[in-house]
Design brief:
The complex is a heterodimer of chains A (about 190) and B (about 160). Chain A is an all-alpha fold. Chain A is about 65% helix and about 0% strand. Chain A has 9 helices and no strands. Chain A has helices spanning about 1-5, 10-30, 35-45, 60-80, 90-100, 115-120, 125-145, 145-155, 160-185. In chain A, helix 3 packs across helix 4 (about 60-80) and helix 8 runs antiparallel to helix 9 (about 160-185). The longest helix of chain A is centred in the last third of the chain and has 26 residues, at about 160-185. Chain A is globular. Chain B is mainly alpha-helical and about 160 residues long. Helices cover about 55% and strands about 0% of the residues of chain B. Chain B has 6 helices and no strands. Chain B has helices at about 25-40, 50-55, 60-80, 105-120, 120-130, 135-155. The radius of gyration of chain B is 18 Å and the shape is globular. The two termini of chain B are about 25 Å apart. The chains are: A mainly alpha (about 190), B mainly alpha (about 160). Chain A: It holds the Pfam family Sulf_transp. Chain A: Belongs to the TsuA/YedE (TC 9.B.102) family. Chain A: It is a multi-pass membrane protein. Chain A: Keywords: Cell inner membrane, Cell membrane, Membrane, Transmembrane, Transmembrane helix, Transport.
């Protein structure tokens, strides 16, 4: 049994489990699924700086912080007790592309050449780690949600603005991955 | 103290409950988070490689994950509404509607850029740190800074 769990899980197991988070959070406490809002609550709790967007009762939303802390703990459990011992499998085409940028590490879910403390102090690593993170935080809040809040929770509730947001997430991702990222990776 | 400002345009992660959560009852959300984090890692959704494969249309995997998650979500929400299912505390389930703003377009595109660069949405960032890639703490701090910067210049942006 544990052997099966240690294998990478297929999409038709992972997707429905993620989808079930929507009714679970609603039923156990009337909470709408959404993760990027946790970043806003952290701002409100730590650096509100008298900005009206961060002046609200974040303690009422602290369930969200417990939830993301759980995700962090889940990451630890999965990595240390349920880890897949084999290198991550990726498509031959992607592997070839990445090799041409000198990205050959396949030991983890993130390539060490891009996401490591050594990399942080290179131009390429700085863009991947710092600029990328900034865009995630700025963009999700500007859009009023992320993949969980819009793509999953919003569309689950048949909200068309969430569909618009999700389509824009995808367009942005296609543009970056295909047209811009190759230049960043070759830095 | 206000409740969440512009609740209708930014309803993500909203607490629809009027009840006050005690510190202890919040632990059930942590438990759901733990299970969620395990799924994230075990299905390799937090993998930078999977996100590149998705955006380069090389693999069906992430489309299958998101598509089946949405399908299960839609069916669940319909069942909750149809049968008027209550929370375990007996409250009526409230889901705030999302109202359209141009932010969903501009912000959506910017988040898309960030998603393809980092290979992560906000949720996977927490799980990635958990798996031991400690430098992602910097990505998370930068995402928090990005959120803060949005709050700072929000009124000057088109919405």
């Amino acid at each position: 049994m544990l052997e099966i769990i240690k294998e990478p899980w297929p999409w038709y197991v992972a997707g429905p489990l993620i989808g079930l988070t929507v009714p679970i959070l609603l039923i156990i406490g009337n909470k709408s699924f959404g993760i990027s809002s946790s970043l806003r609550h952290i701002c409100a709790a730590c650096i509100p700086a008298n900005i009206s967007f961060f002046k609200y009762d974040w303690k009422k939303e602290s369930w969200n912080l417990f939830f993301v802390f759980g995700i962090f703990l889940g990451g630890i459990i999965a990595a240390y007790f349920l880890a897949n011992p084999n290198p991550v499998e990726i498509t031959a085409k992607l592997s070839e592309q990445l090799n041409s940028y000198g990205i050959t590490d396949r030991s983890g879910l993130l390539p060490k050449e891009l996401f490591s403390w050594e990399s942080l102090f290179t131009l390429r690593g700085f863009i991947m780690i710092v600029v990328g993170g900034f865009l995630v935080g700025f963009g999700t809040r500007y859009a009023g949600g992320c993949t969980s809040g819009h793509a999953i929770m919003g569309i689950s509730n048949l909200q068309w603005p969430s569909l618009v947001a999700t389509i824009c997430f995808m367009i942005g991702g296609f543009i970056m991955a295909n047209l811009i990222l190759p230049y960043i990776l070759s830095l | 103290m206000n409740t969440l400002e512009n609740k209708n345009t930014d309803t993500e992660g909203i607490n629809g409950s009027q009840l006050k959560d005690s510190g202890f009852s919040n632990f059930k959300y942590m438990l759901v988070g733990i299970l969620f984090g395990i799924v994230f890692v075990k299905a390799e959704i937090i993998s930078w490689f999977r996100i590149q494969e998705m955006f380069q249309l090389q693999s069906f995997f992430m489309y299958g994950v998101i598509g089946s998650a949405v399908l299960v979500g839609i069916i669940s929400v319909q069942i909750i509404k149809r049968f008027n299912i209550k929370t375990i505390q007996g409250e009526k389930i409230e889901i705030q509607p999302k109202t359209f703003s141009k932010g969903q377009i501009y912000g959506g595109l910017l988040f898309g850029f960030g998603w393809a660069i980092t290979g992560a949405c906000p949720g996977p960032l927490f799980a990635q740190i958990g798996t031991g890639v400690t430098v992602i703490v910097v990505t998370l701090l930068s995402a928090i800074l990005g959120t803060w910067f949005y709050g700072l210049i929000k009124d000057k942006l088109p919405h």
